[in-house]
Amino acid sequence: MTDLQNGFPLGPQPGITYPIRVLYCGNCSLPIEYCEYYPEYEKCKLWLERNMPTEFERVMKLGEKEDGEGGGGEEEKKRQKRGGKGIMKARKKEDGPKQVCVSRAPRGKKKSVTVVTGLSTFDIDLKVASKFFGTKFACGSSVTGDDEIVIQGDVKDELFDIIPEKWPEIDEDSIEDLGDQKR
Ligand SMILES: [Zn+2]
Questions:
Q1: How many Å lie between the centroid of ligand 1 and the Cα of residue 28?
Q2: Are residues 111 and 175 located together in one domain of the fold?
Q3: How far, in Å, is the centroid of ligand 1 from the Cα of 44?
Q4: What 3-state class would DSSP assign to 111?
Q5: Does residue 75 lie within any of the structural domains?
Q6: Residue 178: what pLDDT?
Q7: Do 104 and 155 fall within a single domain?
Q8: pTM confidence score
Q9: In what order do the strands lie in the sheet with 100-107?
Q10: CB under 5 Å of ion ligand 1: residues
């Protein structure tokens, strides 16, 4: 019980503004940082955009930059950049191979979602792509990260036909099947 102290930072941490405010989402009632793990993230975003535009902007930025690195210092830097360029613009990847990856991830006990990454390596607008998938499969689809779309449903196999059909510049061979992934 008492060695909780060992792994836990004591005192104020650099880069964090005190007191820490935890904001809860009006859609899923989780702290807004966790909304992205909620199946209805799209609705959460709408709620957030409407009710907490500032936080919405911040969360969007976090999602965009989340490449594993954390830490308070980073956080502070991000905050200072606010008010700069367009917020939702997907970062273009200038280097690296062009490849789209698709995988399946569990959602609840019986359902799965399909995760598509790499579309922006082909300069595809993720918002347009997400909307396209949503319409095509008649299910929820949302942009969930820098270069990631989550489709609510197991449509992985269909994507191998549908992606090259919609975007002829993507060859079926440049779509990699990552199989089943944990999220
Ligand atoms: Zn939420």
A1: 4
A2: yes
A3: 4
A4: strand
A5: no
A6: 94
A7: yes
A8: 0.47
A9: 141-145, 148-151, 111-117, 100-107, 175-180
A10: 25, 27-28, 35, 44
